[in-house]
Amino acid sequence: MNLWRDIKGTVRPFWITLRYMFKKPVTIQYPEQKRTPSPRYRARIVLTRDPRGEERCVACYLCSAACPVDCISMQAAEREDGRRYAAWFRINFTRCIFCGLCAEACPTLAIQMSPDYEICNRDPMKLVYEKEDLLIADGGKDNEYDFYQHAGIGVANPRGGNEDEYGPVDIKSNLP
Amino acid sequence: MSDFLIDVVLILVKLGLIFGVLLTMAAYLVFAERRILGRMQLRHGPNRVGPFGLLQPAADAIKLLTKEDFIPAGADKVIFFIAPGLAAVTALLTFAVVPFAPPIELFGRQVPMVVCDLNVGVLYFLGLSSLAVYGVALGGWASNSKYALLGAIRSLAQLISYELSMGLAVIPVILMARSFSLTDIVLAQQGAPFLLLNPPAFLIFLISVVAESKRIPFDIPEAENEIVAGFHTEYSGMRFGLFFVGEYINMVILSSMITVFFLGGWLGPVLPPIVWFFAKVLACCFFFIWTRGTLPRLRYDQLMHFGWKVLVPLALLNVIVTGGVLLWIKG
């Protein structure tokens, strides 16, 4: 009967809530308990270095081009040996949406997302990170990768001399 | 003359005690409710301010007091000011007739543990619970807002409907106790509490009391999510807080009424009477909180149907049956 069903449906939930009252809460109490985020967690952005300790960033502007909110800006410069670097590199974290597109776009694995999520600040100006703040002394997710060992102009090896590269083509003699 | 003075002082002391205890209870009921609801939902609830979050009521008070106190343009200022107070005061006044314990001997004097043992205490309680409706009505009307006015009308309809079944559920109690005085009603339960003697009246009273205190599943007066909150839409800061406090004082009052009418008041073995009284009141409060954690909000038409088509006829039937049975036992 419908009435019986209604009464049962009204009374039974009481038992359920009472039972749940004596279960342990699942809440993570944040400042005391912290969870380690997964390796692919996207939080504060860092600039990494290659195995030799050089800056990986070649200031190609691909990250700032990929950035949907335009929070990355930089100025390219070139060293005497032909290696490019960023004269200055700035990320405005007040605008950053932590989408990770910059890290996807980076050909040298220089810009990477780190799992450090505790960068809140009351002063927005403190969230504008300069190159000094962004650069870390580590290779990040792929420690062994070195862009100039695989491509780019002859910085690590002479032009075309890298392991997985062909030598430069002589366009004058490249006849069919 | 000095006897009269001592009486006055005693009454003032009792009033002060009730005032303090009741307000503290209201503040900590809010806290307890949040903690208990949290645990029912596998959360912790407020636990940041002070040990176990026990200073949370103080933090809430500071927050409410420092919030912007907004008065809508065109509001009837005087009524807008007194409406929240009315809600709290009518609830407080009811406590004048609630007996906590049997009279005690103090310096050779009989001190009754009730501010005023009215011989029509039940009527006083019913009258004041009808007056509580004014807080809602005036609050909604003085806000000069259509939403608040409609919300007030909605709440009024509910409160008045459920007051009927509440009053009707008390009649069997009066019949069985043969008195309108709350002390006599408690004393009449020395054999067995009226909860066991007349469970239907208890159930009807309990349901109408939950509706009367505007709590889930009958909290249509609030319903912030689906329809604009209601009579307190335009209230902010401590003025809103006063409505809130009034609701919780009301919860204590109605719990003590359940205790007095059906659970045998202060009567109980072993423990001192006042402890029994408070234990029963707190158990009722816990039941209110438990209900809030369990049941969903009723739809408005369901709420009115339930009040008029189920509770009121049942209560009437119960009055007739109880009266018949009492006559049969007597004759």
UniProtKB/TrEMBL annotation, chain A:
Catalytic activity: a quinone + NADH + 5 H(+)(in) = a quinol + NAD(+) + 4 H(+)(out)
Enzyme class: translocase
Note on how the cofactor is bound: Binds 2 [4Fe-4S] clusters per subunit.
EC number: 7.1.1.-
Gene3D superfamilies: 3.30.70.3270
Keyword Kinase: no
NCBIfam families: NuoI, PRK05888.1-1
Protein name: NADH-quinone oxidoreductase subunit I
Organism for this UniProt entry: Desulfuromonas versatilis
Phylogenetic placement of the source organism: Bacteria, Pseudomonadati, Thermodesulfobacteriota, Desulfuromonadia, Desulfuromonadales
From TrEMBL, chain B:
The protein's name in its UniProt record: NADH-quinone oxidoreductase subunit H
Function description: NDH-1 shuttles electrons from NADH, via FMN and iron-sulfur (Fe-S) centers, to quinones in the respiratory chain. The immediate electron acceptor for the enzyme in this species is believed to be ubiquinone. Couples the redox reaction to proton translocation (for every two electrons transferred, four hydrogen ions are translocated across the cytoplasmic membrane), and thus conserves the redox energy in a proton gradient. This subunit may bind ubiquinone.
NCBIfam families, alphabetized: PRK06076.1-2
Bilayer topology term: Multi-pass membrane protein
Enzyme Commission number(s) of this protein: 7.1.1.-
Gene giving rise to this polypeptide: nuoH2
InterPro entries listed in its UniProt record: NADH_UbQ_OxRdtase_su1/FPO, NADH_UbQ_OxRdtase_su1_CS
UniProt keyword terms in alphabetical order: Cell membrane, Membrane, NAD, Quinone, Translocase, Transmembrane, Transmembrane helix, Ubiquinone
Keyword Acetylation: no
Family recorded in the similarity comment: Belongs to the complex I subunit 1 family.
The UniProt record lists the keyword Cell membrane: yes
PANTHER family cross-referenced by the UniProt entry: NADH DEHYDROGENASE SUBUNIT 1, NADH-UBIQUINONE OXIDOREDUCTASE CHAIN 1
Catalytic activity reported: a quinone + NADH + 5 H(+)(in) = a quinol + NAD(+) + 4 H(+)(out)
PROSITE patterns documented for this protein: COMPLEX1_ND1_1, COMPLEX1_ND1_2
Quaternary data: NDH-1 is composed of 14 different subunits. Subunits NuoA, H, J, K, L, M, N constitute the membrane sector of the complex.
Location in or out of the cell: Cell membrane; Membrane
Pfam families membership: NADHdh
